[in-house]
Design goal:
about 290 residues, mainly beta, eleven-stranded parallel beta sheet, two-stranded parallel ribbon, about 5% helix, elongated
Length: about 290
């Protein structure tokens, strides 16, 4: 028999303490039957593959920290209001394939470091990540992928320091700037990939102090991207490799003039103390 609701669990009360999983329930519309549950979840809160789930208000009793927070493929879920009591994530924070979600407002109580990775992916209507403004660090990786309406990363401006893993900003066609990522001064312990962000014109939102990348650098297929000077130090400007800080391969291609090749990027990087791009200094000498 396919379950239509969780009303039979209304007698549950107090803390679970470990994990809560709600998944593969095509008919469940709400989690009201869990309204008596309270306290922290030390391991997992995972809500996924629930085709009819429209609200999670029944989770408002949860308070404090969780281990991994995982929401995936809940196509009718329009808000995260039931998560307003969660204040920290010790593992991964994943919001993936939630097509009606316009913001992350239910996560506004989060503060401190995410102990694992931040994954924001395939959310058709998501406009911003402002609710994450209380975060101060992501200890592993950041994946911002395939969010067609995402316009702003300003909510991540409090995240500072290093990343233990990758930084992916890929296939976000409404994103014009990377403002919000400036606190990531490195090192980055994995791959840096900025790919197919069709409205992105500048990398000025990245920290120019970024000097070390353990993995590969992919800066590709960003059709309007013409200002990549923020990566100058990472690429070892003005001379480039082997004076660079990239541990793996470098692929720079398919971007607008100024960022179309590694050589163009190096030529546009600022010289220390000059305040002027290299090409302007050369032009001045010629004149």
């Amino acid at each position: 028999m396919i379950m239509e609701n969780l009303d039979g669990l209304q007698g549950l009360s107090g803390s679970i303490g470990n994990s809560l999983w709600v998944y593969d329930n095509p008919l469940i519309r709400d989690l009201d039957g869990l309204s008596g549950i309270s306290g922290e979840l030390l391991v997992n809160l995972q809500i996924y593959n629930n085709a009819s789930l429209q609200n999670i208000d029944g989770l408002t009793g949860l308070a404090g920290g969780v281990g991994n927070l995982y929401f995936f493929n809940n196509p009718q879920l329009a808000n995260l209001n039931g998560l307003s009591g969660i204040t920290s994530v010790a593992g991964n924070l994943t919001m993936d394939t939630l097509p009606l979600l316009q913001d992350l407002a239910g996560l506004s109580a989060l503060a401190g470091d995410v102990g694992g990775s931040l994954i924001i992916a395939r959310n058709t209507a998501l406009d911003n990540v402002d609710a994450l403004s209380g975060l101060t660090g992501i200890l592993n990786a950041i994946y911002l992928q395939d969010n067609p309406a995402l316009r702003s990363l300003a909510g991540l401006s409090g995240v500072i320091g290093a990343l233990g893993g990758d930084l992916f900003v890929t296939q976000n066609p409404s994103l014009e700037t990377l403002e919000g990522l400036g606190g990531l001064r490195g090192p980055i312990g994995g791959t840096l990939q900025i790919f197919q962000n069709s409205s992105l014109t500048t990398l000025s939102g990245l920290s120019e102090d970024l000097s070390s990348l353990a993995g590969d650098l992919f800066l590709t297929s960003n059709a309007l991207l013409q200002d990549c000077a923020a990566l100058g130090q990472l690429l070892g400007a003005p001379d480039g490799p082997p004076a660079d800080g990239v541990g793996g391969s470098i692929n720079i291609s398919g971007n607008a003039s100024g960022c179309a090749t590694e050589q163009e990027l190096l030529a546009s990087a600022d010289l220390p103390g000059s305040g002027l791009p290299i090409w302007l200094l050369v032009q001045g000498l010629e004149n």
